[in-house]
Amino acid sequence: MAANNRRMSGKKGAQVGSGGQRRRGLEGKGPTPPADMRKGHKKNRVAGAKAKQTVRRPAPRGRGGKASSELVVGRNSVVEALREGVPASTLYVQQFIDNDERVREALQLAAERGGINLMEAPRPELDRMTNGLNHQGLVLQVPPYEYAHSEDLANAAYDNGVDPLIVALDGVTDPRNLGAVVRSVSAFGGHGVVVPERRAAGMTAGAWKSSAGAAARTPVARVTNLTRALEAYKKAGIAVVGLAADGEAEIGELAALGGPVVIVVGSEGKGLSRLVGETCDVRVRIPMPGGAESLNAGVAAGIVLYEAARRRA
Question: For residue 10, what is the DSSP state?
């Protein structure tokens, strides 16, 4: 009589409950990746070690308002930054990247400018550098901006035998507005821009691009306390003029624009902060017969700088 219980067989074959694992194990796994892309391979370890040596992470923000380096990520952004002359230290290019027109232009611009290191790195390393952003195989490292000291702006003007013309920004957080102000200061013969360290835009790649190259000619100073910086200007005999929608005078009536002056521009939404407004010698308004409530910082600064330049001429 045959036994009903199953017996262990020495023959190899599919067993009940295997779920077809052996059948799936016979399926192809696609082409074998290159040696330096295979985890555990010697060439992969060498490539990873080389990437760790060449990739420099952005430096942390230090004490005293020292800026950190910045990463510009993505093919279009990198090409635009290189076209606009944004200072750069290193261009990282992904290994085995698809070489399209933007990649070729980025490599050409970096080579033509000189002083930009070209580094090849595996995609995982670029993912780590950019915290998973869609870098598309191109990452540009922008070194920390060299901020001037607020006193240097006035001293440089006096050294050239002219009265200082400076713009200070209060609460302007859009880097594009900062870049536009730098561009206007350069266009109308100003001597620099002052920004606070906190809750304000700094000289990022975006600000540099908006300045259309003017950032290379016009210094930007960063201060830990804007109110104290303005008080120091006043003690040095420089008038501090704040722009406000409810200012007591119009810009066309203000003789102070013809002499040493700091023009303070607030944010479009909140305007000047209370302490900064109280520190100003006078607050002026821009007449707007069209009925607009406010102007952005770049436009407002340009109008007042034009008036100051007209008086000085």
Answer: S
